[in-house]
Amino acid sequence: MEGRIDQSFSQMFLIDSNFFKDKTSNSFNYDLLISKILETSTNHDRCLNDQLGAPFLPDDLTWIITQNMGQIIKVPDEGKYVVIETRVSKANRFFVNRWFGIWQSSQLVMEFQIQFAALNLLTRRMVTIPYQKLEVYCLVDKRLDQNFKRVLESDHLSLNNEENCQIGEEDIDNNQHVNNLVYIRWAFQAMDQLMHPDYQLKQISIKYGHEILPDHQVKLLNYLDDSKKEADHIVSVQTFLNQTTQEEACRVVTKWCLAN
């Protein structure tokens, strides 16, 4: 290897008015933020491919997200830049985990861990990952790895409401299924109606299951556990059910706390 390949990669983004739906404390546009996180991840992949001299994955394979979890320390201030930093935190033959730190004015305001798997576009099956190259070039920073906890199920919760989700042409990505960001958008659109504006998002966990194709029918089941109100927090569980296949496509669990 000629030269040194950095473990860390960063990009800067302006937090403009597009990141805020209105002025309430829970109005931050998290699906837009996560799109910027994934943009940073994609650009890091391109940078690594250039430095390694060859694509990490062959053309018939693509990355898919299996899990995502985040912790919100504070909402970034509008009108200021944030730096999104990413590092590979874990790699094996099945998954590659990435850590993301979001910094504003040298302060860590959010952290995310996203787990990726490799999908064969022809067979639509997950395949093994040639992870050894990451270890050979010392590109895995294991200090930042965090174990993914089991995503909370809704068995002990009462159903708050349910709604049908409409799939638009723009919701289908290059892998010919509903894009991961669409579930987040649907989830927060529903939470806008359910969550009191005095509450602010503190934690989010997302578990992706079976894919949804363009001609499938989708139902969102919203569960709200407000039994912890006396402890100043509320937990929501949102399950996306593929009604065509009767399989769970995605589960989103969020923890909301009273804003300071």
TrEMBL record:
InterPro entries: Acyl-ACP_TE_C (IPR049427), Acyl-ACP_thioesterase_NHD (IPR002864), FATA/B (IPR045023), HotDog_dom_sf (IPR029069). The keyword Hydrolase applies. GO terms for molecular function: acyl carrier activity; fatty acyl-[ACP] hydrolase activity. Residues 31-132 form the Acyl-ACP thioesterase N-terminal hotdog domain. Keywords: Fatty acid biosynthesis, Fatty acid metabolism, Hydrolase, Lipid biosynthesis, Lipid metabolism, Transit peptide. Gene3D superfamilies: Hotdog Thioesterase (3.10.129.10). SUPFAM superfamilies: Thioesterase/thiol ester dehydrase-isomerase. The keyword Lipid biosynthesis applies. It comes from the Bacteria. This is Acyl-ACP thioesterase. It comes from Facklamia languida CCUG 37842.
